[in-house]
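The material for today's practical consists of a large collection of protein records. An example says more than a description, so a record of this kind follows:
***
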Amino acid sequence: MRGETDTFVLALMHSSGSYEELLAADYTFASDALAAYYGAAAGSMTDESPLPRVELASVPGRGGILSHASVIATHTTVEDYRAAHRGRFVIENLLCQALPPPPPLDDIPPIPDDVSPREAFEAMTDSPGCQGCHSMINGAGFLFEHFDGGGAYHSAFAEYEVDASGVVDGEALDGVEDLGRMLAASKTAQLCMARRWFQFAVGRQEGPADFDSLQRALMSFQDAGLDLRELVASLLSSDAYRFRRLPE
């Protein structure tokens, strides 16, 4: 699974560099075993990577890096209630929106019996103390509801049909593929991507003195049709990357 994600990103950065493709590509690079795990036909070898290229256009729920099993399984739990981890990943890491710490555990309401995992989690997080964050977290996290803890796709769990609908930034979505397309077009997500690359390249959080460097990188990224390579090149040639501010 990790090999799929590493290979996919590397091949992308050596070809189109497209941010939209990163989030919504209808292909991946995977071993025959992982392709079968996804319910896809075995791929074919190309010059792009050491792993076969696997087409995903007709595979339910797959498309872009957010549907990679490595990403899904990383943000999960051993229980059925996985929306919190996955929703927080989207809100904090892909939209750069800060969330406060959770309230004390004794604030969680009783969980009803004979309901789906989604309905149980909605009930768990329905108190006023939880809704401050979970009104955002749940809407993003439920979009991953088709996937179990190992990233395998299911149309139903036990006798309950999966409901993978949710709302992110005021937009009604259904499933991870919708989420990828929405994030690719989102100015908020594009700025967040620029911030995350800045933090990775420079090794610290951005500050007021970094505004011009970050803004130029974002503009280069957007002017190049969301080419991630232009974003990286702009950051690596910026004052924030090349110079160090000395203490007074």
